[in-house]
Structure formats: C-alpha cells, structure tokens
Amino acid sequence: MLFFCDSFDIVRPMNDTKQITQLQRIMAKFEGCRPMARALKKPVSSVSRWTDYVPGKYVTDVMTAAILNGVPVTFEDFFDKTRIEAAYKERRKIEAEIEHLRHAQPTRVETAAE
What is the pLDDT of residues 58-100, one digit of tens each? Predict the structure, then answer.
C-alpha cells in the first residue's frame, strides 16, 4: 500500500487515481514521513515540507539512510520513467532527422553573382 505525508505525521493511503510523486514513492518505502525523518535524522517538520521530490541535496542522505535501515529504495525511485522514456524517444527522433539531412542531396542555391 502506498502512503503520503500531508503534515507532520499524518500518513494516509494514496488515492489510486492520483499520480504518485517521487517523494510519495520513496516515503512509502520508508512506511511514512516520521520513519523517513527518523532514518534521515532530520526533524519531521523539515521532511514534511518537501513537496513532490526529495531535494537534490538530500538524495545521497536518503540513499544512505535506506541502505542502513534496510529500506528497498533504488536510484530508479528518484526518476520518472515516463519522462525519461519520452526524452529518449525524442532524442531518437532528432537523431533520425539529422541522419536523414546528412544523406539528403544538397540543393544548389544560386546567388545574384552567377
């Protein structure tokens, strides 16, 4: 079951229709806001202020706390697979267009001097 923290230690089940944020996914693995704050040795009030994402400066702390506390957090939990896949798809599209342009016949542009 997935949880999210909406204040100091109020942890509620996630609504199935709502998109799960990075923070909610990671916090669920710690089993709530308070256990995550305890593992990080941070005040609950600080962790509960994080919205949607773990702040970049705390990513290493979260991974370390997860490892030390046996919480199954992985690096993939920090990234939105849908956005990454969309970026790779866009990159492949751009690379294909560039390749097409490389092999296209150059067109001669006539200038007024000719």
Answer: 999 999 999 999 999 998 888 877 778 888 899 999 999 998 8
Are residues 34 and 44 in contact, defined by beta-carbon separation less than 8 angstroms?
yes
Q: Helix or strand or coil: residue 99?
A: helix
Closest by CA to 10, choosing from 40, 39, 45, is 45
What would the DSSP string read from start to end of 12-79? EEPPTTSPPPHHHHHHHHHTSHHHHHHHHT--HHHHHT--SS--GGGHHHHHHHHHHTT----GGGGS
Burial class (CB in 10 A: 0-12, 13-18, 19+), 73: buried
Residue-range domains of the chain with CATH = 3-79 (1.10.260)
